[in-house]
């Protein structure tokens, strides 16, 4: 009996020690205040060795901003353009393709009269001069869709047609692609995943991935399912992830892992300040950090200078903080 007690005690000590020795990876605050006004829901890119943000959301009853900023180090930011020609800059879709920056769709005018969604497509090589590829893409006007570049084409995945005032009919699960931003092909009118906005979308391991998202109002819903496709037509459900169902999070690929960063969920209303990663979409692990950014939603995320970055977002209040995380190349998913 004594040997049994000692064995159990020893096992407990080993477990406690292992838990206590679990490594943490701390984020570094690059700046408390970037040069741009605190905001969320902005477009974001890494282009020509610079971080870029543009547009976004200030307050419910303010027209969305149309400014364009860039930075070579995340700390010092330059105002490139004060008033770009596009106006639907709240929750737009943004990618880099064909050595150009692209901004597509988005929402205009908050909850004010005259609000609208867009299916305009714009591009720029300097952030100052913007060209309109089309004023009416094949897909319906929308915001908060997934957007990726895959097989040398821009892809639009789902989204929502009416931000505050829509219903389930506003939610989309169609998939479109384009080589030039002007001519769009409908790949499928109904992907395997349920209609949604505010989702995460990345390209990883030769496939497109979609996860999370849902709807805000009038009927809240949130998901944590994970889907992938090699052609945009046939989609496979990989898992229901262990992270909480959520909207308005950021998604990136860093160190050969897909990342889910922050976000928001309701019942009760809650910002998330967590970071989850997965190599296969099925097995997810939460990154342990002693120093991390304040919980937030609709922030920007980048992979830049061999680091993972977070910028701005709604951290109650709106933020213009910049944070970065460096993991060694042999990190191997924290194993």
What does this entry look like structurally?
With 335 residues, this protein is mainly beta. It has a single domain (27-334), classed as Kelch-type beta propeller (Neuraminidase). It has 1 helix and 28 strands. The protein has one helix at 2-20, and strands at 28-31, 43-47, 50-54, 68-71, 78-81, 93-97, 100-104, 107-108, 116-117, 121-124, 131-134, 146-150, 153-160, 171-178, 185-188, 200-204, 207-211, 214-215, 221-222, 225-229, 236-240, 250-254, 257-265, 270-278, 285-286, 300-304, 307-314, 318-325. The strands form 8 sheets. A 4-stranded antiparallel sheet has the order 1-28-27-26, with no helix packed on it. The longest helix has 19 residues, at 2-20. The two termini are 36 Å apart. Residues 1-11 and 13-20 have low confidence and may be disordered.
Q: What form results from the Cα inertia axes?
A: globular
Range of strand content: 35-45%
Helix content: under 10%
User: What is the CATH topology descriptor?
Assistant: Neuraminidase
Order of helices and strands: HEEEEEEEEEEEEEEEEEEEEEEEEEEEE
Alpha carbon gap, first and last residue:
36 Å
Overall mean confidence score, pLDDT: 93
Please give the order of strands in the largest beta sheet.
1-28-27-26
* Largest sheet descriptor: 4 strands, antiparallel
């Amino acid at each position: 009996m004594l040997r049994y007690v000692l064995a159990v005690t020893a096992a407990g000590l080993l477990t406690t020690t292992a838990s206590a020795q679990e490594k943490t990876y701390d984020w570094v605050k690059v700046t408390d205040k970037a040069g741009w006004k605190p905001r969320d829901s902005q477009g974001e890119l890494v282009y020509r060795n610079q971080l870029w943000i543009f547009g976004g959301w200030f307050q419910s009853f303010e027209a969305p901003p149309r400014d364009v900023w860039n930075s070579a180090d995340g700390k010092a930011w330059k105002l490139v353009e004060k008033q770009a020609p596009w106006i639907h800059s709240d929750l737009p879709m943004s990618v880099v393709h064909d050595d150009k920056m692209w901004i597509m769709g988005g929402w205009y005018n908050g909850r004010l009269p005259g609000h609208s969604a867009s299916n305009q497509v714009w591009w720029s090589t300097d952030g100052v001069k913007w060209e309109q590829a089309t004023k009416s893409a094949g897909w319906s006007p929308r915001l908060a869709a997934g957007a990726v570049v895959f097989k040398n084409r821009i892809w639009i995945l789902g989204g929502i047609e009416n931000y505050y005032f829509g219903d389930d009919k506003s939610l989309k699960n169609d998939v479109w692609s384009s080589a030039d931003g002007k001519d769009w092909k409908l790949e499928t009118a109904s992907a395997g995943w349920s209609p949604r906005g505010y989702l995460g979308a990345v390209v990883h391991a030769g496939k497109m991935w979609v996860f999370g998202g849902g709807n805000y109002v009038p009927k809240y819903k949130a998901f944590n399912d994970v889907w992938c496709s090699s052609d945009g037509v046939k989609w496979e459900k990989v898992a229901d992830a262990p992270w909480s169902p959520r909207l308005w999070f950021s998604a990136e690929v860093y160190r050969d892992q897909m990342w889910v960063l922050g976000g928001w969920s309701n019942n009760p209303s809650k910002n998330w300040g967590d970071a989850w990663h997965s190599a296969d979409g099925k097995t997810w692990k939460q990154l342990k950090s002693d120093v991390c950014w304040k919980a937030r939603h609709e922030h920007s995320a980048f992979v830049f200078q061999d680091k993972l970055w977070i910028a701005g977002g709604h951290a109650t209040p709106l933020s213009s903080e910049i944070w970065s995380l460096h993991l060694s190349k042999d990190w191997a998913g924290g194993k």
